From TrEMBL:
Gene3D superfamilies: 3.90.70.130. GO terms for molecular function: deUFMylase activity. One of its GO terms (cellular component) is endoplasmic reticulum. GO terms for biological process: proteolysis. This is Ufm1-specific protease 2. Coiled coil: none annotated. Belongs to the peptidase C78 family. Keywords: Hydrolase, Protease, Thiol protease, Ubl conjugation pathway. The gene is UFSP2.
Amino acid sequence: MVLVDDGAMILRLGGGLEFLCQLDVSDASQRQLEVSRSFADLRSRVKAESLVFSLTDSALFIWPNKSFQASLDDVDESTACGELLQSEDDDGGGKKKKKDKKSPVVNLRFMMEITEPTEPSAPCLYRENKKHHCIRMVLPMDCVVTVRSDETFGSSCKRLLRALSTQLSEMEAVTLRHMKDTDVPVPRPFHFSLPTSTELVTIVYPASVDDKGLESFRKELHNRFELPDDRPYFRRSNAFHFPDEPYKTREQNYHHYMQDRMDDNGWGCAYRSLQTICSWFRQQGYMERTVPTHKEIQQALVDVGDKPAAFVGSRQWIGSIEVQAVLSHLLGVTSKILFVSQGSELPSQGRELANHFLTEGTPVMIGGGVLAHTILGVAWSETSGKIRFLILDPHYTGGEDLQTITDKGWCGWKGPEFWDQNAYYNLCLPQRPKAI
C-alpha cells in the first residue's frame, strides 16, 4: 500500500479552471467536438507562461513555464523539494514562521497571471438560443505527485504540469462518456491508496453519477490495476484522506447508549452494536445509506416477518439472530452465527474468530443473557490457545471523549474472564460482500 516513506513527500496542486463551451443542440457529434475543443484550449492554457504556482502559506510564487522563475531569490530549479517543508515565510509583519516539518504533504495552488493585452480584444458573448446551449463551469483540478525529498523542485514542477494536462484529458474522457444531450456532468478527481501501487492513484468521476452507475467503470479500473473484485477500492467514500485536511462530516463510528437523543439505556445495546456494524460497512464504502435508527431497525424486523407491527416504537431487546436479519434486509449482507452454551467456551472459538478478522474484517456482535457487545478483533495464540478480545462496549452513556472511552475501558482488550462464564452466547459474524 502507498503512502510516503521517510524520504518521500506528496506535492499536491489544486485550483480551478473555467470551462466554457457552446453546444449545438441538434448535432450530437458536433457537441462532442466542441467539448473536446474546449478541453484542448485548457490544456494549452496550462502550458502558457502566465501559469503560476504558489506555495500555500508562503510568499513563494513559481512560473514553471517561464524558465522556472521564482519570487524568492533562494529558490531555483535545483532547490530540493525537502527544503519546501523547512522554508520560512514572512507573515506580513516582519516575523518569520516555520512550516510544519512533520507534514508529508506540500500544498500548492495554481492560477493564471493577468496581463494587459497589447491590442484591444473583443469580448466574447455566450448566450443560449434555439440552436446553441452554453456550458460554463469551474473544473476542480487536484493533482498529486509523490517525490523524494532530495528531488529538485524544477523536476517536480514538470511532473505537476504533466499531471495537470493528464487530468484534463481524463476529465474530457469522463465528460464525453457521461454527457447526455446538452447536460454535461462536472468531472471531479479523487485520490486512492492501492495495495498494488507505490503512489496515490487519481481517478476522475462525474459528480452527478452515483456509485451504482459507476460499477462498470470500477470493474475496468480493477482490471487495469490488477485488483481483486471483492473489495470497493475505488468507491468515492474510500478516497484517500490527507492528514492536513479536515473531515467533511463527523459521523459516529462508535454507537452507544444515549446517542442521537435516544434514551435506550438498559435495552438498546444490541441496536447500538448493529449500528456500529452498519457504520463499518458505510465507512468501507459498501453502502451509501445512512446508519439505521432504532425505529428503522424495528421496522425492518416487522417487514421480514420476524416481529409483529406493535414492535415498532417499543423498548424490546433484540439479539444476534435479529441483527443477522436486519443486515440481510437493509444491507444485503449475509452473516454466520456461532453459538456457545456458556461463556467459558468462548476461547475455543479463537481460531474461527481470528480467521474471521483476517478474511472478513467486519465487527462481530455478540449477545448473551441481557448484554450485547461488539468485538473489533482478537489476539489469539495458535500454540497456547490464549485469547484476548478487543471490545467496543455499547453500554457507555457519556460524551464523545476518546480519552475517557479508552482510559475507562469502554474500548479495550479484555480477557476470557470478561464474559459471564455460565451464560450462553450467540455471535453474529457479518460476511463482507464480494463487491466493487
